[in-house]
């Protein structure tokens, strides 16, 4: 092993140690290069319009596959995972209106980005100037693919990243930078013959194992779609009004999910007291107060009212 290899390994250990100190659950490293295997898959997925009205998914095709087109001189992708599995959950009975667990607290974009900025700052103190960019769902970056290449898990049949130790309830972020590091290798796929996520999806959005038609997903209908929800899916939402956790909830690997340690992700106190009637009668004032720094703001009040009305008619 050369001196350069020792330096790269030491640098990789430092990055992971700093990430752990800042509260990230997992950190992995990969070489910033062209995602050759993903190119035909992405093209095939887009050609079949499985992105629906998420037109941004078709933009910057080349940048989505090559991080060096996003950051000049990029050599590495640092992937981090931050657990959001809640200790206190909203009721999810047959008649309860349901909210995806990732939206219980503060919008993850703020929390994850702040932690990642601090990680870069601490690394610069130890290593020196770093040229790079932080990405949290904010650019054409295939976060689950990079996390898998970094050994943080594998992409399951529901298209979410799965980690053997803690399941899939994670936020993913990337730092694409010019640091030369010792990369991690991928792990094997442990889904086996299980098809619980495929079988459980009420809108048949998982059209085949590992392929999700985004335009048929409950999360798409309740968050991304800006027009009226089509009648053809009426009666299939199982009371989800923002996002959907069904494919994750039924996954056997999530029996290992552990409560997160990030206070910002805790269930908003007022949201914890919400009843179905509160959702049905929600006002602009209440919406702005309860969801002031929440991912739910993305739908705006009109979107939530549309979603609530749609499932209450089922």
Please characterize this protein's 3D structure.
Monomer. By secondary structure, the chain is an alpha+beta fold. Helix content is 34%, strand content 13%. It has helices at 3-21, 38-47, 61-65, 108-127, 143-149, 196-200, 218-224, 246-249, 269-272, 276-280, 284-290, 300-312, and strands at residues 26-31, 76-83, 98-99, 132-135, 154-155, 161-162, 170-177, 206-208, 211-212, 240-242. The strands form 4 sheets. It has a 4-stranded antiparallel β-sheet, with helices on both faces. Strand 8 and strand 9 form a beta hairpin. Helix 1 (3-21) crosses helix 4 (108-127). The radius of gyration is 20 Å and the shape is globular. It starts with a helix and ends with a helix.
Ranges with pLDDT <50 over ≥5 residues? none
Tell me the number of strands. Answer: 10
Helix/strand/pairing class, anyone?
A: alpha+beta
Fraction of residues in β-strands: 5-15%
Share of helix among residues? Answer: 25-40%
Order of helices and strands: HEHHEEHEHEEEHEEHEHHHHH
Strand order of the largest sheet: 1-2-7-4
Annotate the secondary structure layout.
Elements: H1 3-21, E1 26-31, H2 38-47, H3 61-65, E2 76-83, E3 98-99, H4 108-127, E4 132-135, H5 143-149, E5 154-155, E6 161-162, E7 170-177, H6 196-200, E8 206-208, E9 211-212, H7 218-224, E10 240-242, H8 246-249, H9 269-272, H10 276-280, H11 284-290, H12 300-312
Parallel strand pairs: 3-10
Antiparallel strand pairs: 1-2, 2-7, 4-7, 5-6, 8-9
Task: Report a brief summary of the structure.
The protein has 314 residues and is an alpha+beta fold. The chain has helices at residues 3-21, 38-47, 61-65, 108-127, 143-149, 196-200, 218-224, 246-249, 269-272, 276-280, 284-290, 300-312, and strands at 26-31, 76-83, 98-99, 132-135, 154-155, 161-162, 170-177, 206-208, 211-212, 240-242.
């Amino acid at each position: 092993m050369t001196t350069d290899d020792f330096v790269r390994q030491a640098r990789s250990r430092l990055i992971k140690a700093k990430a752990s100190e800042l509260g990230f659950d997992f950190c992995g490293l990969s070489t910033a290069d062209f995602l050759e295997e993903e190119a035909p898959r992405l093209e095939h997925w887009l050609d079949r319009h499985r992105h629906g009205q998420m037109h941004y998914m078709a933009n910057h095709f080349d940048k989505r596959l090559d991080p060096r087109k996003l950051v000049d001189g990029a050599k590495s992708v640092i992937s981090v995972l931050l657990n959001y599995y809640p200790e206190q959950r909203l009721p999810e009975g047959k008649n309860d209106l349901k909210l995806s667990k990732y939206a219980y607290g503060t919008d993850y974009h703020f929390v994850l980005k702040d932690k990642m900025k601090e990680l870069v700052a601490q690394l610069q103190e130890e290593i020196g100037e770093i040229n790079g960019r932080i990405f949290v769902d904010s650019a054409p970056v295939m976060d689950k693919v990079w996390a898998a290449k970094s050994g943080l898990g594998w992409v399951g049949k529901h298209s979410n990243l799965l980690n053997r130790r803690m399941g899939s309830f994670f936020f993913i972020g990337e730092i694409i930078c010019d640091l030369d590091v010792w990369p991690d290798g991928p792990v094997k796929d442990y889904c086996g013959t299980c098809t619980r996520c495929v079988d459980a999806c009420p809108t048949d959005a998982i059209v085949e194992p590992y392929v999700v038609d985004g335009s048929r997903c409950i999360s798409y209908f309740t968050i991304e779609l800006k027009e009226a929800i089509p009648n053809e899916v009426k009666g299939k939402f199982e009371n989800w009004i923002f996002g959907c956790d069904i494919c994750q909830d039924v996954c056997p690997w999530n029996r290992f999910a552990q409560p997160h340690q990030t206070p910002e992700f805790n269930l908003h106190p007022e949201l914890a007291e919400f009843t179905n009637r509160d959702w049905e009668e929600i006002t602009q004032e209440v919406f702005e107060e309860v969801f002031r720094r929440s991912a739910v703001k993305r739908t705006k009040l009109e979107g939530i009212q549309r979603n609530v009305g749609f499932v209450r008619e089922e």
